[in-house]
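Why does residue order matter? Because the sequence determines the fold. Keep that principle in mind as you read this record.
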Amino acid sequence: MTQVCATAAEAVADIPDGASLSVGGFGLCGVPDALIAAVAAGSATGLHVISNNCGTDGHGLGQLLQRRRVRRVTASYVGENAEFARQYLAGELEVELTPQGTLAEKLRAGGAGIAAFFTPAGVGTPVSDGGLPWRYDADGSVAVASPPKETREYGGRRHVLEESITADFALVHALIGDTEGNLLFDKAARNFNPLAAMAGRVCIAQVEQLVRPGELDPQHVHLPGIFVDRIVHTGVQDKQIEKRTVTATKENDA
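Structure:
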């Protein structure tokens, strides 16, 4: 049964030090901001975050980074966060960069109970051969590098073995959810939220609209409630823009 929590703080209260978190979102779209803020307001530290990206300075997972609450990040893209780059290059943060499609499948496979899979993505690069700097020393040397992975040939093409991902907790954002945990995601927010939810042993969902059972058309459900352990109604999300670009008004348009 899905537990309906009164607040985001209640929903994340038992996340301990050292927990692993699979976190939904794509850029700043569909980020479980209320849940992340609640974790940031708590005391849990030494967290391992698995997410497509790590937010921006001050937004999304960037809040946890600024408070030095993250020890390790598994992500596919981290280019919009200056504090992330500073901590990584200073040897304060361990980072495992993963091809985006591989990361998506690692989460999905973890949720489906599949231990590992072979993929051609990354073959012949440091992704398969090893040597990617996971953590630097303060002097700039590599303290921890990625190990080489097993490769095999299928259909005349080399593939690399990738292990699936499961996390202690999943934090996700949905547009609509019902009190039984069935979720509907909005557009690009569907990219990683369902996968992150599946990979979490305890899935916590924040929703903009919370409805009663039966109000969601079953054919519109993107993630069934069997994957969702806790749900909290957080209201309409204050959506952020990573890079705001505007066109200057021309004189003849004024």
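The mean pLDDT is 94.
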